Amino acid sequence: MKILVPVKRVVDYNVKIRVKADGSGVELANVKMSMNPFDEISVEEALRLKEGGEASEVIVVSIGPAKAEETLRTALAMGADRAILVETEDHVEPLAVAKILKAIVDSEQPGLILVGKQAIDDDSNQTGQMLAALLGSSQATFASALELSNGKARVVREVDGGLQTIDIKLPAVVTTDLRLNEPRYASLPNIMKAKKKPLDKKSPADFGVNTAARLKVLKTEEPSGRKAGIKVKSVTELVEKLKTEASVL
Ligand code: AMP
């Protein structure tokens, strides 16, 4: 069974985000970019399933600029077998990503697609759900544990009330949450080896998908600065301030 893992190139989670001077978006020039953290978790999970004999091949795919090849090489260095880069300079929205992924799923026929729960740049949390809808396949979102057996997946989901365990039929889309695993680091020899692993280059047009934006960004603004906090001496004082100053009680 193949496992397909989409990986997105995003601003590194350690970077302090700055808004462009003209308010047209987030500053990306000279900013460190990395693999979306949830996608690292997906790659790790796919590799563990392969190492446990549940999968035969791990394919990673990224839709983005030529530099997304670096993100794919990182996934290959972690242990993925091959990569597909769908190259575009457009800011691709979740629906277009899901349509491209659907076309890849149709040709590759993976048994499992491990999508990140959300990309930390747009925080959409849409792609996995849209992909499952387009495929008409089972889906389990926000997985914190995953087990495969007999063409089924048992997924523990992180939900508002705690944890929920569900069984779904493969092929399925599973979106990964933070507690699923701790991704490995790529070793230097594996980084060298990854340079020679197969990487296929495609364009959205190869899949008949138009990636032009459907949404228009009107303005991007920094959040207003937070006011300094104060220390209170007692619970009574806290309750009093919440009532009279913050008016929240
Ligand atoms: P989102 O719905 O944008 O929050 O993204 C959720 C997940 O969809 C990400 O964690 C990735 O697994 C996948 N994804 C979104 N955009 C891309 C992209 N451009 N290339 C590859 N995977 C993507």
UniProtKB/TrEMBL annotation:
InterPro entries, per the entry: ET-Flavoprotein_bsu_CS (IPR000049), ETF_a/b_N (IPR014730), ETF_b (IPR012255), ETF_beta_N (IPR033948), Rossmann-like_a/b/a_fold (IPR014729)
Family statement: Belongs to the ETF beta-subunit/FixA family.
Pfam families for this protein: ETF
The organism of origin for this protein: Ensifer adhaerens
Keywords: Electron transport, Nitrogen fixation, Transport
Quaternary structure, from the entry: Heterodimer of an alpha and a beta subunit.
GO molecular function: electron transfer activity
Cofactor: AMP
PROSITE patterns, per database record: ETF_BETA
Annotated coiled-coil segments of the chain: none
Higher taxonomy: Bacteria, Pseudomonadati, Pseudomonadota, Alphaproteobacteria, Hyphomicrobiales
Record function comment: The electron transfer flavoprotein serves as a specific electron acceptor for other dehydrogenases. It transfers the electrons to the main respiratory chain via ETF-ubiquinone oxidoreductase (ETF dehydrogenase).
Protein name in the entry: Electron transfer flavoprotein subunit beta
Annotated ranges, domain Electron transfer flavoprotein alpha/beta-subunit N-terminal: 23-211
SMART domains in UniProt: ETF
UniProt-listed GO biological process terms: carboxylic acid catabolic process
